[in-house]
Each structure stands twice: as structure tokens, then as C-alpha cells.
């Protein structure tokens, strides 16, 4: 342990602790801008400077480990003047149109300006205005608001290993862009939106669909259906000031109904359906021994990553569509048929913790119903804005159930939102499919939690199945490199089933979550999903009565021809240069 | 030889240079730390760094395309546009600047339809700025290839440029 004083308060800290964290322990929060609890400190912004007695100059608290006997001062007049000047310089090159900014009230620069006491502009706006990058269907990038802190690059390159963004050009012309300045839509960007949730300012945000959805809601000719992803029920409360991870399933249904949706349905319903299709696929693969391991396909960020960097594994991918797209295909076929609605008049909206879902719903092959299966995807933040605009507060809502016939769900569906959840849900049903018996203890703890790669061996009545779970594309890359190696050297992998989610923590850590995220918050949301699972009467997907009715009345059985047409898909090879589909050779 | 023929000739040559770039890359395959050296050699081959060459270098050295692009756009030495047959350089040194060379530069950009660092589509001209060419007594001064022009006023530009094919 190292002993030091921070503003005359004595502290003890383990060796290697940064001054920033040591100061926090002593009760002093040093202001920062580029620092993020989940990323390595980079020292770009210089806001966190402190004085250390006997050491000349100012030191960056985020990057300086506290040393034995250090006497640190965190807010002398010199430090405060330096911080103020740094913020003023950043503001001199930043659009300060806060009132119309998507980040208004959630901007770390805005908060910092208030903390360090900026009340006059000493510098006029310098530099020319740069064009806003709207080339991506998921993410908008506004370089005029970028402060070059580099958090987006860190998460894109180090955590996700996608490498879509980098610092390009130099001096005053420095910008964070994609290769050839081609724009996110013409790059290897997988639309995961981790850059969006790590950006401290309004330089990165989702491409909004709220206007289109308002228009549909107010069009008397349209029948607007809505589905909500598993993770949204543990995020939406945060948009209304509730504690992180508050479970608001019933309140969410009530608020959506009051917003004017004609039918409030559930992505959780099709999560159960995904298990029936993917579970059956797993049994087929285990029986035939071909194309193992089976790899999950629910995460559209992961799908584009796989298509770009691991397309030799396409035969291993589950062909099951994601729950969002299964829902889309059924809403304009089965649902329309049963309810007697013209599918051409159905507008299908989904509420997602995800920005990549916006890309997924616009993939040209996602039109099994004869229409674009899902019309609009809204992130949790966008639906929060719409509800506030309509004067709805989720906190104040009663608990209401979803509507039939695409509304029922089990505990297995709701845990899809946490890393390991799809795996756990699949095992619960695969056990029944293989053995004809129910798995008694449904909780498969080794696949839960935030460890990067999780492994487990599952005994299905004598058959041992080795599974692995990866969350974040960086961890997925590690795991799949190992799988590729094993297949190349030994002809097969040690794993039979692999779950991959593109975002750290799974969907509860998606690019569409509320602003100000960190791993601790993601973990809390995941715990809430497991709580809902425990509280539900049915916890196995194959027990969902509405799913069973769907097979009986419409699809016949899992992996039937009709199920294949509506619920399964195929994948492409993509270029590592621009992320576009490569022509088949 | 007509200009058009020369132009085609240059393009044919560029295609023929890629196998030579491949040889350079082979020597450094998988070695990301050699990036600047390889880019240097590539630029010596082509006279600039065409997009295809950047993609080949990224793939060959196993670095992301963005890293390659970041390095190229950071260093002034590297150019992503081919150089024109005639190099036009306007001096923005102190003496020239106070005698109005910015106006000359603005006119040159307008006349050629390109920005500083650019090359015209027909590859006839490249435009750059320089900081003092030691001809302060002739300010404002400019260079076309090896020829120095002094006391340039923007209306002179079309005539000066027209001399160079």
C-alpha cells in the first residue's frame, strides 16, 4: 500500500492506483473529459491536471500513479485557471448549439463547462464547418461536435477490434473518420454503436426514426404494431430517472399503448421462437456431427463482423433470424392473417437497445413477408424521447400485459438480453428436445456474468456438450481464432455450441442504451433480467403457449419448410475495405 | 507524342507497377512496424499512393486500413493524389504574403478548379504552396516547374499557366 495526501487528506492506495481514483477515495472528484471507467486512460484532454509537491509542472491525474509520500493538490488557483482555459479552447472549436443537440442535458462537455465555471466565450469559433456523415443507416457522425478525445477509437479498435474509426489528417485539420474519409456507411463499421455510448459529446448518435414513427402513429389508415427487445425492459426506466436496471416490463407496455400503438407485442415472444428453431438446429447438428460448433445469430453487429472478418465460419452460423426479424416476418403474415388485417397497412416498429438493428431491418433479404418485415427501429433513447414528448412518464404507469397473439413470453426469452442468456435458454429447451425430459435446475450459472469468454460443459442425459459464450467482438475474435485453429489442426473444435453478442455485456450494453453507460450499469441490468426470469411462471421456451399455437396453426413444426422461408436467413462475405457484400466468385 | 497518348501510357505503367509493390510487401509481410518504410517505397514506385496500393499494404502488413490511411494523411510527404505534369507552387512566405500572394493563390485555385495539394483531372497541373523560395525581392513570387515568376498579379495567371502543357 502507498501512503500519500490529497489536499492534506491522508490516503492509502494499492500500488499503481491513479491519482484520479486515489483522490476519489479521499472525497475529491477531479473533473475529466476523455477518461471513461471502462477504457484505458489516454490523457488526451488534460482536464484532470493536478500539482504534486516537488514535481515541476502539472500532471495528468488519470495517467499518473500515486507515489509514496506524494502531496497532491487538486484545485489550486493555477489548476483551476488551466482547466478553465482548456475547456475554453475546446469550446472555441465546438458547436455550442446545445439547445438543439441530441446530447443536451446529457453532455459531459456541457457539465464540465458548468463545473469549471465557464461563463464567457473568450475565443470565437475557429475553423470551417465540416459535413455531417450520414452515410450509415444506424449512426450519424458530426465532426463539428467532436472534441478528438479518442474514446470512440479506443472502443472501436481495442474492445471491438473493428477498426472503423481513426485519427486522420493533422493539425487543425485533424478529424476522426473512417479510411479514405468514406463515411461510416462505406466502412467496416458493424453499427454496434459502442462509439455512440462512449462519446462524451453529441458527435455520435443514432440515425433517428422518431419522425417516421410519429407519422405512422397519426395515420388512421395504418395499423402500427410494436415489439420490445428483452433488454429494453431493464433500460427504459433509466430514461425517466429510475435506478439503473429497474424492471419495467408492465409499465413499458402501458406507456407504448398510451403512445398510440395499435398492438403492443413482444420481441420476447420471438426470442422463445428463436430457441425452438435454433434448438432444433443444434440437435440436428449434434446428431449429424456436421458444422460444429453451431454459432448463434441474434446479434446483427456480430453478424456483420462475422461476414467481414470470419466469413469462412458461415457454414457454422445458425440460419435462424434474430428475434426482431422473426417477429417482423410473422407480423405481416401470421398476425395479419389471424387478425384479418391487410399486411400492406401494418407498420412494424421495434424498440431495441441496439443501433445495428437499424441496419439489420434494412438488409435487402429481410422481406420474407413480401414487405420490409420490420419498418422502423427505435433505440431505447428514441422511445424515451417520444414518451417524454407525449407527456408520458414510465414511472407513473400501471403494469399492463402485452397483447395477444405475439405477446406471451417465458423466462428463457427475457434473459436473451444478457450475455449467456441465449445459450442458457437454448440448453433449457435442447435438453427437453433430446431427452424428452425437463431440465430440473434451469439456472446455468457458469454462462452468466461479465467474464470475457465463458465456458461450460453441459450433460444432456449422458451426452456432454461443450459450450462457450463471448461478448464484445474483441472476445469473439479471440474465441473464434481458437476455433479456426482447432478446426485447421484437428479437423474439429472442442466446442459444440457458441454464443456471440457484439456488445460488452450483451444487449444490456447495446449501442441504443441510455447515455452515461459503464460496465457496472450493464451488470445491474443483466441481474434484473435474471430476476424477471425467476419471477415468471414459465421458464422454458418450449412451454410458451402462444409459440405452441403458432406451430400448430401456421408453421407446423420447428425447421419446417414454412418456418425456413419465414424465420431463417443466409449470410454474405463482406470486404474488409468498405464492408460491402463481395460478389460471389 | 500527343498529350493523350502520354496520359494513357502513364496509366498502363501504373497497372504494371502492382506486381513490384507485391514484391516489396512480401519482404515485410505481417510486419506492421514496417508500415512507413513500405509506404515510402510504394510512393517511390507510383509517385503517389493510389487507393489500391493502400489496400494492398494494409492487407499485406496485417494492419487496419484505417491505420494506413491515418499515417498517410498525417505525414505531408505522402500524397494520395497523382502529381500533375506541371508543378505550380505559390509562395506564401512573409514577403510574398504581404504583397498579396494569397490573392494569387485564390486565383490559381479558381483557375485550375482544385485546392492546394490537388491535381487537375487531366493531370496537367498540381498546385501546392511553398514558404519562401528566396525571391523576396520579386514578391509575390510563384514557381512553375523550374521557372520563377516575380511580381505576379492574379490577372497574369491564365497566361502563365497556358504556357505549360
Short description:
The complex is a heterodimer of chains A (585) and B (165). Chain A is of the alpha/beta class. Chain A has helices at 19-25, 77-92, 108-116, 151-159, 194-198, 210-217, 249-259, 267-288, 300-309, 323-339, 356-361, 380-389, 411-414, 421-435, 473-490, 519-535, 545-555, 561-567, and strands at residues 2-6, 9-13, 49-52, 55-60, 71-73, 139-141, 166-168, 175-177, 204-206, 223-228, 263-264, 294-295, 346-352, 376-379, 453-460, 463-471, 497-501.
Query: What CATH architecture label of the largest domain in chain A applies?
Result: 3-Layer(aba) Sandwich
What's the CATH topology label of the largest domain in chain B? Answer: Glutaredoxin
Shape of chain B: elongated
| Coarse structural class of chain A | alpha/beta
Supply the number of helical segments of chain B.
Answer: 7
Task: Give a short account of the largest sheet of chain A.
Answer: 5 strands, mixed
> Helix share of residues of chain B?
40-55%
Write the layout of secondary structure elements.
The complex is a heterodimer of chains A (about 575) and B (about 160).
Chain A: E1 2-6, E2 9-13, H1 19-25, E3 49-52, E4 55-60, E5 71-73, H2 77-92, H3 108-116, E6 139-141, H4 151-159, E7 166-168, E8 175-177, H5 194-198, E9 204-206, H6 210-217, E10 223-228, H7 249-259, E11 263-264, H8 267-288, E12 294-295, H9 300-309, H10 323-339, E13 346-352, H11 356-361, E14 376-379, H12 380-389, H13 411-414, H14 421-435, E15 453-460, E16 463-471, H15 473-490, E17 497-501, H16 519-535, H17 545-555, H18 561-567
Chain B: H1 3-27, H2 35-46, H3 51-61, H4 65-74, E1 86-91, H5 94-98, H6 101-112, E2 125-130, E3 142-144, E4 147-149, H7 157-162
